[in-house]
Design brief:
- By secondary structure, the chain is an alpha+beta fold.
- Helices cover 32% and strands 27% of the residues.
- Among the domains are: 2-98, Rossmann fold, CATH 3.40.50; 127-202, ATP-grasp fold, A domain (Dna Ligase, domain 1); 348-445, Alpha-Beta Complex (Glycinamide Ribonucleotide Synthetase, Chain A, domain 4), CATH 3.90.600.10.
- A five-stranded parallel beta sheet has the order 3-2-1-4-5. The protein has a five-stranded antiparallel beta sheet with strand order 12-15-18-23-20.
- Helix 6 (102-109) packs across helix 7 (111-121), helix 7 packs across helix 10 and helix 8 (134-147) packs antiparallel against helix 9.
- The longest helix is centred in the middle third of the chain and has 21 residues, at 261-281.
- It is globular, with a radius of gyration of 21 Å.
- It binds adenosine monophosphate and glycine.
- Residues 234, 249, 307, 311-312, 314 line the site of glycine (GLY).
């Protein structure tokens, strides 16, 4: 099989790496890919329209490419192309693709829509109200903070922009002034463009978060199935002990510590089962992946969000635990035989800390050479997943990689338990260096 992976981050490198291991896969093309996919065995990057083409144009170009190259299967990494309808376009052109159609992609593209769906099908989630007028949202903010004038301080208020906002659409406001400022910035000043025109005010929940990635195969005329993967935990704040600004994710571990059998059962009953029921009842063509962003409060799982794709960096921690063939999983999703796919997971754990450029998530330099001590790295049996780096042909000695993003790479290390995985991962990171490289030291703790 020839497989095409769409996207350019660490998740896509992990997907390409895993797909390339399949006996059924002869070649993986990554569009546009990154310096990691460029150097992976049996992988090749595809640059169709240069930098930052319009989404519609790139989708047409990808279809032409997939037809011409006789691509057997396309796997979509990020949400943008899914929300823009890439899966429907590929399927209309007779091409197999792993990714939900545009209707189902609204579960991520609109938080308001997702919340309505959760309420309609009884998926356990935080309470919330939706607003399209700033004045009304501001009134609700004021009454939230006024209402708690009694003993104790008012709980924070969670403010969520409706649309895709690249991780910048959720603000937890501790005080009225901050909440008002956010509402005004989102709804009136348009800091997130159209993504902030509709907004949710949500109840603040407290507890550890867990990511569950899963495969979904559902659609008209077939019996739906959601197959959850081993759980994971992302660490979103920039600095140790969850300090500093939110990022795209500073590292992940799998499985998520503390996600016990009882919690998994609760997740199945309160979240997974009603989600599948909803997907079927809405008649979605959902052949792809789903990501459940959970928060555990008082031993109960609450769904904070759906993503209609795999998580980044969770994928870099979860896929190395999968012993089964990933291309076969994608075929089962597409063909409606997911129920007969029985994945084998390695016992043990993976720890995948991310190395970032200095300044990230603010401004950061690019173009710095990445040095790589191969012997030291090999001793840890870790895998290097590139997120933001390019490979320059004939580049510097060592890896030939140069930084090109804020999150530069992750090392993904396996261990028979979390502690061993962590020890190996941090040893592996010591074998990598670039100017200004920094990382959290508490991934998995
Ligand atoms: P979301 O994109 O909805 O997952 O929100 C991004 C992050 O904001 C989550 O991973 C949580 O850390 C936090 N968050 C979202 N909703 C809530 C909530 N209701 N209570 C507390 N924290 C939340
Ligand atoms: N790790 C969260 C995400 O992929 O959005």
């Amino acid at each position: 099989m020839k497989v095409l992976v769409i996207g350019s981050g660490g998740r896509e490198h992990a997907l390409a790496w895993k797909l390339a291991q399949s006996e059924r896969v002869e070649k993986v093309f990554a569009a546009p890919g990154n310096g990691g996919t460029a150097g992976e065995k049996h992988c090749e990057n595809v640059d169709l329209l240069g930098r930052d083409p319009a989404e519609g144009e790139i989708q047409e170009a990808l279809i032409r490419y997939a037809v011409k190259e006789r691509i057997d299967l396309t796997v979509v990494g990020p949400e943008g192309p899914l929300a823009a309808g890439i899966a429907d376009r590929f399927r209309s052109a007779g091409l197999a693709i792993t990714g939900p159609g545009v209707e189902a992609a609204r579960l991520e593209a609109s938080k308001d829509y997702a919340k309505t769906f959760m309420k309609k099908y009884g998926v356990r989630t935080a309470q919330s109200l939706s607003f399209t007028a700033a004045a009304e949202a501001l009134d609700a903010v004021r009454s939230h903070f006024a209402g708690a004038a009694g003993p104790g301080s008012p709980p924070p208020l969670v403010i969520k922009a409706d649309g895709l906002a690249g991780g910048k659409g959720v603000v937890i406001a501790e005080e009225r002034a901050a909440a008002e400022k956010t509402v005004t910035a989102f709804m009136e000043e348009g800091v997130l463009g159209s993504a902030g025109k509709t907004l949710l005010l949500e109840e603040f929940l407290q507890g550890p978060e867990v990511s569950v990635l899963a495969a979904v195969s559902a659609g008209p005329g077939r019996k739906g199935c959601i197959l959850p993967f081993v759980s994971a935990r992302d660490h979103k704040r920039r600095f140790d002990k969850d300090q500093g600004p939110n990022t795209g994710g500073m590292g992940a571990v799998a499985p998520a510590p503390g996600f016990t059998g009882a919690l998994q059962e609760d997740f199945h009953g309160a979240i997974l089962a009603p989600t599948l029921e909803g997907i079927e009842a809405e008649g979605f063509d959902y052949r792809g992946f789903i990501f459940f962003g959970l928060l555990i409060q008082n031993k109960r799982c609450y769904l904070l969000e759906y993503n209609v794709r795999l998580g980044d960096p969770e994928t870099q921690a979860v896929l190395p635990l999968l012993d089964s063939d990933f291309a076969e999983l994608c075929i089962a999703i597409e063909g409606g035989t997911l129920e007969d796919y029985h994945p084998v997971w390695k016992p043990g754990a993976v720890c995948a800390p991310v190395a970032a450029a200095s300044g990230y998530p603010g401004e950061y330099p690019t173009g710095d050479a990445i040095a790589f001590n191969e012997a030291a790295f090999a001793g840890t049996q870790a895998v290097l997943f590139v997120a933001g780096a390019v490979r320059s042909p004939g580049g510097p000695a060592g890896s030939g990689l140069r930084t090109a993003g804020g999150r530069v790479l992750a090392v993904s290390a396996y261990g028979s338990n979390g502690a061993e995985a962590r020890e190996r991962a941090y040893r592996a990171l010591k074998a990598v260096s670039f100017n200004g490289m920094s990382y959290r030291r508490d991934i998995g703790l």
